[in-house]
């Protein structure tokens, strides 16, 4: 026996109820009990950076300060530190970060804040020469004079993108690059057995 249709009246035949269209089902709402729906994974927003090349182009643009906010803030509020770090890497450890930072501050104070851009301009030119980078968007002197903060941050990012972290100093970076084995290393005379 089947249960009676609640919409049918008593005394009606079941054939009349079968001919009528079924009522629309009510939508199901709520969270199913006993089922776990994990949240979709959050995607990290990754900045579009070019892979470091042997030369020919900067890996970031002059105004890409949002790629590395820490460096940008340091270049804005205490530029002697990133200039000293960049100078130590560009000089390949022949001068220390502290010495270059003190020299930058000395030039700043002697020139009453008017000529410190010349110091960072010199290191921008040396960095460009080391990596064969173009003088874009304009000459080094004009870039560092008009927007020294962006110029310092760009040099710092360039070294980071090329595998030399200026925050670590030259000695640590040189040891780190010497200890890294080549990508495709094969030993002669070795055979594999199956």
| Gap from first CA to last CA | 70 Å
What coarse outline follows from CA principal-axis ratios?
elongated
**Average pLDDT:** 77
Q: Supply Rg.
A: 33 Å
Number of strands: 0
Q: What structural class results from the helix and strand content?
A: mainly alpha
Biggest sheet layout = none
What do you see in this structure?
This protein is mainly α and 194 residues long. The chain contains 8 helices and no strands. The chain is elongated and about 100 Å long. The protein starts with 13 loop residues before the first helix and ends in a 15-residue tail after the last helix. It comes from Oryza punctata (Red rice). Residues 1-19 have a biased composition (Low complexity). This is Cadmium resistance protein. InterPro entries: PLAC_motif_containing.
List the helices and strands and how they pair.
Elements: H1 14-19, H2 69-77, H3 80-90, H4 97-110, H5 116-131, H6 140-146, H7 148-161, H8 169-179
Helix pairs in contact: 2-7, 3-4, 3-5, 3-7, 4-5, 5-6, 5-7, 6-7
Would you summarize the structure shown here?
The protein is mostly helical. 45% of the residues lie in helices and 0% in strands. This is Cadmium resistance protein.
Which features does this protein show?
194 residues, mainly alpha, single chain, elongated, 45% helix
